[in-house]
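User: Can you help me understand a structure? I only have the sequence.
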Amino acid sequence: MSAAEPSPAPDDQGVMLTHPDRVYWPDVGITKAGLADYYTAVWPRMAPFITDRPLALLRCPEGIGGTRFFQKNAWKGMNSHILALDDPHGDPHGHLIGIHDLGGLMGLVQGAALEIHPWGASCADLERPDQLVMDLDPGEDVGWVAVMAAAREVRARLEARGLVAFVKTSGGKGLHVVAPLEPVADWDRVKTFAHTLAQAMAADSPERFVTTVSKAKRHGRILLDYLRNQRGATSMAPYSARARATAPVSMPVAWAELDMLTGPAQFTLGNTVERLASQQADPWAGFHAARRPIAPDTP
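Assistant: Let's start by predicting it. Here is the structure, written out as tokens:
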């Protein structure tokens, strides 16, 4: 190591952060150490959504302006605090990625994981999802008010089927509506349920919604991405950073505050800790207690 290089910085989880001053978000000056500080601050709220479940990572070793790649499997040289998980239906020579504690999250930061995308199932039962995610992805010329209205419609349809719905910003273009599930239905059942719900919305309002990924069909409409609910698929973790300009995060919000939001990237690494400190209650505090099964007689 040359004299010009900063020494590795240990955090309080025993993980050495090499090059802690490396800038990951140059437009706002956020470094690797800054990302570690952020995740340490939000850990109590984020932990239940990312521990002990397979994770996919968006790694950006040079920051958001450099090379980026998705990492779904354990890699040679990964930090020892990161877990290599066995997948009974996966590559016998490969392992999924997981963490069990804050040290594991710091290991992900050391590995330049700027985004964290968990499975919809925990390691306790990889074959039965414990959440359903509807990703609302607006096409061009779709206003924010229309995205909020779509989220409320998804909520109403989920509640009509006996589920409880929570909402968060994506940190990208849209909103995610998430229903906690009792892990009793398998992947095919949950995917079919989500697909049927999305198809019904698109059939009722074809001028507003589509269920196909084709960009040619999405102009002026919102994609109801139900494919997050299949085995191996992932979605953005609550409180995860995004590898985008201004360093936005995916933020859980209360339904009552939806109208006060200015857009999907309103919350950032720079303002989230202040938001959490000023909140009287966690809007997703009841998430895990709200788990419901998908009823066998629902579509």
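Now, to help you interpret it: The radius of gyration is 19 Å. The chain has five helices and 15 strands. Let me know which part you'd like to focus on.
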